[in-house]
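pinging the channel bc i need a second pair of eyes. not urgent but kinda urgent?? the chain im working w is below, pasted from the shared doc
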Amino acid sequence: MTPSTTVRSPLRLYGRDDELACLGSLLELLRQGGGGALVVAAPPGLGRTALLRAAADAHRDRGPVLYATAASTGRAVPGGGPVVPLGPSPAFGPPPAAPYPVTTPEALVRRLREPGAGRPLLVCADDAHTWDPASRSALALTAGRLGPGSRTAVLLSAADGTAFPGLPTLHLAPLDEAAASALLDRLTGGTPLGGSRGADLGPVPGAAPGAAFGPVPGADPGEACGTVRSAGLGAAPGPAPEAAFGTPSGADPGAASAAAPGADGIGIDPVVRAELLREAAGNPRLLTGLTGRLTPGQLAGRTALPFPLPGGEAVLAAHAERLAGLPDRTRALLLLAAAAQEHEPDGAGADALLLLRAGARAGLPRDFLDRALLGATATEGLLQRAGSRVHFAHPLVARAVLHHAPWPHRRAAHALLATLLAETGDRASPCTPSTPSPDAPAAVPRPGPAVPLAALVQRACAAPGPDAALAARIEAAAGGPLPHAERSAALARAALLSAGPTLRAARLAAAAEQAGLAGDPSRARALLARAGPRTAGATGPGGESAQGLAPYVHGMLALRSGPAADAREALLAAAALLGPHDPRRALDALLGAAEAAWAAGDALGYLDAMNRLGRTPPEAGLEQYRAGMCAVLEGRTAEGHALLRHCLDPAGDPGAPAALLRAGAAALVLGDVAAACRAGARALAAVRTRGPDALLPQALEHLAYAELRAGRHSGARAHALEGLHAARRTGQPNSSAHLHAVLALAASVEGPAEACAAHADAALAGAGPHGLAQAATLATWARGRADLASGRPGEAAARLAPLVGTGPGRGHFAARMLAVPCWVEAAVLGGRQHEESRELHAAVDEFASWAARTADPGAPAQLARCRALLAPADEADARYAEALAHHGRAGGDFERARTHLLYGQWLRRRRRTREARGPLRDALVAFQRRSARAWADRAAGELRAAGEPVGAPRKAADGPTAALTPQQLRIARCVAEGATNREVALRLSLSPRTVDHHLRNVFAALGIRSRTELARLLAG
């Protein structure tokens, strides 16, 4: 039996299965008498030490282990390298009574050069990059020569792969979201001890069962995700502004000494979870440190999160060790680069031109700046340039630079950057607004010269403590026409400068609103977590805003990513709080509540929200929209349509995205699909030009839906795919569900059937938990239409009947009528016309009433087609002619082709095969022109059955089926799929006796005697 080659570790290594397997391969080679070397390279905190210890533990029963760790200083010792403990490692635990023998890297190299003898030897050298260059070169040369017969393997850990360029290197990446989330569950008690594991590790004496990569007894506490003891993440030593502010409002003073929460099995608030995962960025050691320093109340979301989050000091210190040995000018440039990111949105990096000017102003040589900013060699790869932006190779390096820079140096860097930004005057805003903010303190500075927002933020970074005047200036400047991400970053900085907890919470909520508009809901939730729970009766500056704004932001985030009913209630509550002092946001909250009710299919809830909007009359265009939508839903259709027609060309700002989206919605309610397409295209252009980014998925969804209604399926698919990517990028799963439904509808026309099923399933998976009735209705309609295309009318009727009925599964009030023509066709073709006659006629009557009210040009044609399907034989011919006449006036190739197909099929059933060929031929050509493959196959089959050859049937040119007629081949395929004779007759519009006759001839022609043999023959 071959043993497993995967390393089994006593530690719970989340997300490292591939890396453990790689180590296992090396150890298996060692067990077989070979040898080799491997470098495990990763920045601090990603678990390179844990992997070496896991390998050592896996090998300890097979042979000796020598484990070397760097000296505590982490500095290279000239001429010999650091002093390291080296000795056998039977198990990891507290050091034995007798210390390990002490040696040098040279001694280790000599030991490796000895001929292999006895049991296989594993040598682990942790933090080997800290050795001096000569020792590293000797070790690399010796390790590189290990091979067959050496019976020795060397595992090295290093901060990067450049220290040992000639050796194979395993680079560790940050944990993915699933692994980091599983680790967080383990740390907070969210998952039982027997839950999912990264590797099946088993018990080991001396190993701590609750650690993520351990804490290993006897090891440096910071090196294996152990406990940390220093101050908050990102806080600079000395009089840093964050430290001078004291404990944030609501923070527990005992947080620093709080025990790990996993022991108590407490829950973790989803917003806090998202913030911890975002802040840790896949670094398990950092995630462990951050989680261990929060109190149970903070983890549960009952208390505001501190800022900066404490617990990351050990990781930052490890990154800073590398910085300490850099030249002074390199460290000066790194400090400027880290400081220049403070006024930028998260992940945006720093402006390369600003850095070049700042470095020159600081006295750094120009040739050094060119090499550092263009080639990155002068900074040892710590800075990387992408276009006009400069980024740190790892975001934790930037934090470490700020964290460990002396406060006078850091303050000087911010002051220099503020001066340069003020000199450029980019994006300058007045120091104070024309109307003072109700949230601002009484001491508002007098209007002064225009100052760029970025310069104000840099001044804030240099502030030694709270500064109410500077915070007010930043808040005022952030109200200008700036990108939402920049406004969010500025408002968050203004919150840090705020002295009062209420004003701080209001500014954090405003920053969260801007982050949400920028399409960054994770940051928005993190800012809300820092604002803390909403407290009724808050007093002081910003009290009313703090009460209403935070629930408003919560509700708007839930509208895009949570249950629709929850979003509606949250936004109604926020509107009530905001109404007295912030009517604009109160209006937006009510519109959001109405949108949530619409998505949920709650017509009464929609009317309730819109009627509340009418209590404070909005501007004229919005009032017409409100009154028109309410009139339509209340049955006053003519009045409502008259009002909505005024909304198709919105007054006021012609490029306002929200007004254009409402115009598109009004056009769809009217049935004016051409106007809906125009408004949708204008809205998309406005969002692309002006933002906000959070509206891009909705703009694409509205346009795609209008194009579907207009029969432009290819355009709808392209816009929906772009919208789906935008929804995923901006964290909007509800929008993803709606867009999946649109893509399912497009695929039900153009195929393939598998794509339709996949998109419909994705839409239903998102719509179900969040109560998105509109997305569920459209997805189910798409599946039913795809069943029709594939010749499965029975399945289509079963799917669509609940949507158009009046029972509990009734579809969305604004979409169910669109599915009626498909249901009528499926029920008739599936032979359910007589047993469901009353339901069918009732649905057609309701559809007729809807068609009379809508301006949709295709509705009269579809109504006539439904009546033709249900009409007696002597009336059907005229009904089909009426439907085709309506199609001629309305256009729309796809629906007209469907009518031609049904008409030709009806003619062939009446044995009028010669007459049937014309409509069937027209249908085939139209379906092919629209790339509707499944529909074209269905039309081609009908045309062949009418006696007209249409190319070569699939798989008929070769093999035994070549002898079958087109009709026989169609019947054979249906039977091979498992259909009974009666089901085949219904599907192909034949009598059961005709099917039986053809099937006997099929058996005779193929020389078979059973349906099973037929299925096997066609499958092969």
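so The first strand starts at residue 36 and ends at 41. and Residues 543-561 form the longest helix (19 residues). — does that match what u expected or am i reading it wrong
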